[in-house]
Amino acid sequence: MNSVHVDLGDRSYEILVEPALLAQAGHRILAAGLEGRAAIITDTNVAPHYLKKVEASLADAGYQTSSHLAEAGEGSKSMPEVERLSRSLIQAGHDRSSFVVALGGGVVGDLAGFVAAIFYRGIPFVQIPTTIVSQVDSAVGGKTGVNTPDGKNLIGAFHQPRLVLTDPETLLTLPGREFREGFAEVIKHAAIRDFEMLADLEALDPIDQNVPAELIARNVAIKARVVEEDEKETSGTRALLNFGHTIGHGIEASVPYGTLLHGEAISLGIRAALALSEAHSGLRKEESVRILNLLRHFQLPLQLPADIPSALVLEKMSRDKKFAHGKRTFVLLDRLGNGVTCDTIPTEAILPIIESLRHS
To answer: Which of 81, 185, 252, 264 is catalytic?
Structure first.
């Protein structure tokens, strides 16, 4: 069993990574000390594959459950959906003694986690992530929330899970595009904290969806250590996890949600961050090329579509959480494996970088 401990005092928890872990979910949750009824929140893509297995596992451990489905896709990360799900939990008889199980990818984890954070002023929840993005990144760290038309994740709360159960076998049912987009986050982790992981990623077959549990656990450990250092983004350390996200979120918010998958937008954001790193923090060109080639290896986009106006991307960036006190904080690299924050990049330097993404 690959296990990563997240040390946050009385909010500490374990992240377990093991094939076939879904069948053990109920007893693992029981061992973590959760009591009461379980509200499983999942989506219309994940439910046909895994809902019955999780329901059966929870029942085998003695839990009573109800299941609540959201429509698959980024559009479900909204306040109306939070209200709808919360009311469905009330109607199913859940109260402050219940807990939530988030079964799905990043959208489900963020949405279900936020419901758990506010339902009866906060109840426990368990993450069971089923995509690369959620397994290596969004299921860990306690960030929950929803989008608005103005930007991603602008309404939310910090609410740490009580347990994270990661079964790499869930990746086998993902469509290829959804599988590969998650590697933008894996590449991000290697770029900011684990230079040696780059060689491991270069050796992977991007078509083979059998991802080693050890690689997932290695990524999770990076995220866990950063979260331990800076749980609520007060010291600046956690901002390093935003490498590629400053411009990437602006791009993602400039088109209808779901037009670009999260990892695809972040791939474009990473390309922009690499260009800024060369110009402002001394990253060598050959180091940038190595990261760009790795993004290509996983068939991630590196060219901004012509129908996304650069001015709109800039406008959406100004509403992002990483824009505060009149300054944009970028995460750059001064060398591979070492991320640094920078809030001194002039505004006039940003538009040309976005424009540069239009050229191969």
So the answer is: 185
Catalytic residue, from 14, 178, 228, 233: name it.
233
Domain boundaries, the chain: 2-173, 176-356
Residue 245 annotated among the catalytic residues of the structure = yes
pLDDT at 290: 98
pLDDT of residue 324: 54
CB proximity list for 285: less than 8 A, separation 6 or greater: 278
Whether the full predicted model's pTM is greater than 0.90, yes or no, is: yes
**C-alpha separations of 39 from 99, 100, 172, 229 in Å:** 6, 5, 25, 31
Torsion of CA 346, 351, 354, 357, to 10 degrees: -110
Kindly give the pairing relationship between strand 330-335 and strand 338-342.
Answer: antiparallel
Q: Tell me whether residue 185 is one of the annotated catalytic residues.
A: yes
Check if 143 is active-site.
Answer: yes
Specify whether 74 is catalytic. Answer: no
Question: Which is the catalytic residue, given 143, 152, 180, 328?
Answer: 143
**Which CATH architecture is the domain 2-173 placed in?**
3-Layer(aba) Sandwich (3.40)
pLDDT computed for residue 179 by the predictor: 97
- In 3-state terms, what secondary structure has residue 340? strand
Asked: is 176-356 a CATH 3.40.50.720 domain? The reply is no
Are the C-beta atoms of 124 and 289 separated by less than 8 Å? no
Q: Which two tokens mark 192?
A: 């900011």
The whole-number pLDDT of residue 327 equals 66
Question: Is 223 an active-site residue?
Answer: yes
Catalytic annotation, pick one of 180, 223, 271, 316: 223
Residue 225 token pair: 């250590």
Helix axis angle for 79-91 and 106-118, nearest 10°, is 60
pLDDT at 126: 98
Low-confidence ranges of the chain (pLDDT < 50): none
Whether residue 210 lies in the annotated active site: no
Q: Are 158 and 144 in contact (CB under 8 A)?
A: yes
